[in-house]
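pinging the channel bc i need a second pair of eyes. not urgent but kinda urgent?? the chain im working w is below, pasted from the shared doc
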Amino acid sequence: MAAATLDWSQCPAVESIPGKVSGAWLFKDTRMPVSIVFENLEAGASISEIMDWFHLSREQIIAVIEFAARSLDAPQPSRQFAEAVDAYTV
């Protein structure tokens, strides 16, 4: 799952400010994009390594991972319903 597809506005650990790092979702009060955590985890980095490399706290990293995990549990509209809506809106 791509980090960009989540509704990060619901995660209290992050912010997006127009004009700051092109409006990307960042850890609050930093210029560090949230995506850096997922990209590095995917590449095999540990949370401790990400903390060291990017000067993030364990709490910051865990907050975005837990938010993403909870978002996976959220009910998603069925694909059939989404396609039906798209057919009427075209």
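so The longest strand covers residues 14-15. and Residues 79 and 85 are 10 Å apart (CA to CA). — does that match what u expected or am i reading it wrong
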